[in-house]
Design brief:
Layout (H helix, E strand, L loop, with lengths): L13 H16 L1 E13 L5 E6 L6 E6 L16 E11 L4 E11 L1 H19 L17 E5 L4 H13 L4 E5 L7 H13 L7 E6 L13 H9 L4 E5 L7 H5 L2 E2 L3 H8 L3 H35 L4 H37 L6 H36 L5 H24 L1 H6 L4 E3 L17 E6 L2 E6 L21
Parallel strand pairs: 3-5, 6-7, 6-8, 8-9, 9-10
Antiparallel strand pairs: 1-2, 1-4, 2-3, 4-5, 11-12, 12-13
Length: 483
């Protein structure tokens, strides 16, 4: 086979051709800015993104990559449908024979794109409930400390200080932050969270900046700032831009002020207004008190005409009290004398208690003898009846004898339990003047009237003296012994 003439066309390897294209492409363009709409956005980790950019009319598509995205370097996060301006270097990807834009910075493309991105974020945060009016808190009536998040330079902080000093002087704590540019949103969010961690922390916060373009106010449309404002435990007033400017922090704050000066007026009340209201309240209270006092005095005067002569009634009552006091002092003596006379009249007809007790004791002894005699007669009749019975047989006879023996045993036990049997053996029962039995010698006092009860009668005696009770000999102390 004959060789095909090559002519003057140079020959390259694949690597050489890729390198030549890379050098030509990067040398011709270098760093560029490309405007287009983001599509096919994919994230790998928190800081690495792949996406494409296309023209709104679909005329072309450019692959893009961000290797180290951060909110400080770029305020725009790659999202599908967002029109942006990408700044970076045009490079090639030899493995797939294509080129791509390595992006260093993303910016919204024009005010329309900014407004679209803001509206998209607002709708998402609204769906999460961050703008719910029920989450908003009332501002304190008179805060003890006011926190301000703003730039330390410019007229904004001066307007706030001047207004608070004029209305009601309060201490102000400024957290200086940049209010626009790279890193401003992160600094503002950190200031809101930092005030929440302070001890003691302010009673109210003011986030303020002056007017500016939509791009200048984008830090206050940042998602991190809006979430920090919504999560702040301190009531927050937003005062960003002029009265016609609206940012997303206005929806998340507890109160929106059209200007920083208006925010200061919302934070503290007017001292002159409070003094005027206080004076008016004092005047109303004084007038109401005087009017009530006049009405009470009039009612008292009317009631005084209908009252009786109180001093005369008091004197009459005092005189009756003196009379009753004298009668009360004489009543005890006359009452005692009447009772004594009645008792003396009844005394001859009343028997002496000792005679009554002795009579009752004699009756009791007689009844006891009668009961014992009746028991013996019943026992004799039963025994005689048993003797008259025909021969009942050996078993019945044995049972009868056993029953008779048991009956006699019960009778003997009854006799033994009677204290009269004990008295018959030579003992005596000692009673005191109240006829209560005495069981111990220590209970007898010298000169006490005693009654000695024997089996055949009683004897009245008087105690001459008592001997101390004998102490029983204590047992010898125990000693150890070997077992």
């Amino acid at each position: 086979m004959s060789e095909t003439p090559r002519g003057n066309v140079p020959e390259y390897t694949v690597g050489e051709l890729s390198g030549a294209v890379k050098r030509t492409l990067e040398g011709a363009f270098g760093r560029v800015r490309v405007r287009g709409e983001i599509t096919e956005a994919k994230g790998y980790g928190p800081n690495r993104f792949y996406f494409s950019m296309k023209d709104p009319d679909g005329g072309g598509k450019l692959r893009c990559v961000i290797w180290a995205w951060s909110a400080g370097r770029s305020g725009v996060k790659p999202e599908n449908g967002t029109e942006v301006i990408a700044t970076g270097r045009l490079t090639t990807y030899p493995d797939q024979s294509n080129y791509q834009l390595t992006v260093d910075r993303l910016d919204y493309a024009g005010e329309g794109a900014l407004l679209a991105a803001i509206e998209k974020l607002r709708a998402r945060l609204l769906a999460e409930g961050l703008f719910d009016p029920a989450r908003k808190r009332a501002l304190p009536h008179l805060p003890g400390l006011i926190g301000v998040i703003s730039s330390e330079k410019g007229a904004v902080i001066q307007d706030i200080i001047t207004t608070i000093a004029r209305r009601f002087p309060r201490p102000i704590l400024l957290w200086p932050v940049p209010v626009q540019g790279e890193g401003a949103a992160a600094r503002i969010a950190a200031a809101i969270e930092g005030f929440a961690r302070m001890t003691p922390r302010p009673d109210v916060l003011i986030v303020a900046r002056g007017g500016g373009s939509l791009e200048d106010l984008m830090a206050f449309n940042d998602e991190a700032v809006v979430r920090a404002a919504a999560a702040s435990p301190i009531p927050l007033i937003s005062a960003v831009g002029h009265e016609t400017d609206t940012t997303l922090i206005d929806f998340a704050s507890d109160q929106r002020a059209p200007t920083p000066t208006a925010a200061a007026e919302l934070a503290v009340p007017s001292r002159m207004t409070l003094l005027s209201a206080l004076q008016q309240t004092e005047q109303r209270l004084r007038a109401a008190g005087a009017q009530r006092l006049d009405r009470s005095r009039l009612r008292l005067d009317r009631a005084a005409h209908g009252l009786p002569d109180l001093p005369g009634r008091v004197q009459a009552a005092r005189q009756r009290l003196d009379e009753l006091t004298g009668r009360l002092a004489r009543a005890p003596a006359s009452g005692i004398a009447a009772k004594r006379h009645a008792l003396q009249a009844l005394a001859p007809r009343l028997p002496h208690p000792r005679e009554t007790i002795a009579d009752r004791r004699s009756r009791l002894t007689l009844l006891q003898h009668r009961q014992e005699a009746a028991g013996r007669r019943v026992l004799d009749r039963r025994r005689a009846a048993l003797d008259r019975l025909p021969d009942p047989g050996p078993r019945i006879a044995a049972a009868l004898r056993e029953a008779s023996a048991r009956l006699e045993g019960f009778s003997a036990r009854l006799q033994g339990a009677s204290y009269t049997a004990v008295l018959a053996r030579g003992f005596a029962l000692v009673r005191d003047s109240a006829q209560a039995p005495i069981g111990a010698a220590a209970a007898i006092r010298p000169g006490a009237a005693l009654t000695l009860v024997f089996h055949d009668g009683e004897a009245a005696v008087t105690a001459a003296g008592t001997a101390p009770p004998r102490k029983s000999a204590a047992p010898p102390p125990a000693t150890p012994r070997l077992l």
